[in-house]
Amino acid sequence: MGTSKFAGRLGIFVVAGLGLLIAGIFYIGKQKHLFNPVFNITTTFKNINGLEVGNNVRFSGINVGTVENIRIINDTTVKVYLIIDKEVQQFIKTDSYIKISSDGLIGDKIANITQGSSAGRSVSEGQHIQSIEPLETDAILANLSATGENATIISGELAEILHKVNKGNGTIGRLLHDSTIANNLGQTIRYLKSSSRGLDENMEAAKHNILLRGFFKKKDHDKDEKNKKTDAKKSGKNDADVKEGKRRETWKERRDRKRNERKKKEEEENVTAKK
After folding, report:
1. Which residues are registered as beta bridge partners of 40?
2. What is the pTM of this model?
């Protein structure tokens, strides 16, 4: 009786073990694409950045194969052999690229196949695919470290400058804290405005001077001629169109009109001042 119970238990254990073994074989075979039709492609890298045999191969974010083998060809070339599901062969083009990336932030390395052009030809068995070299993590960290150090130095210098400004040191600090400099600056600006008005008045008086009147007349005439040519070019008219078109104001008429406008303005100012 005891022997039969032991044999029954042993038989159950053996059957369960065989079932687990078969399930494991199928699971591993599925992961390694042992039971699916596959095809092979290759690529080369200068640095595989930790990629290992058995790592996944992805296309459009889907696991479609595994890294079958890795061989060092020479001191600058590493050849990677990939096995891919046959059913995705039609979607991988000859102008696709293979790049190495990480499965998450700190996960295993994977080989990613990029999508090629829709007009490209599908890859064939054993075809070589171009690669994109992975970024060196150490170089990125070194650059980030240098950037952080520079930022620290810049922030320290800015803090020192702002401290001096708040204490009233330096040109900016004196401008912000010393009212005398601000008043002098405002007075200088007022003097400049006053000088500009005086210069305009002197130029206007010089225009009415007998000795300089001819010079300003010629200058106004040249300016009018230049304006006429510019206006004719802008309107797209040639010399014949200008002659046949509407009559333009001459420089004498323009001078007289401006003189009358100034005289009228002076009279209005005098009336306002008397009131």
Report:
1. 83
2. 0.45
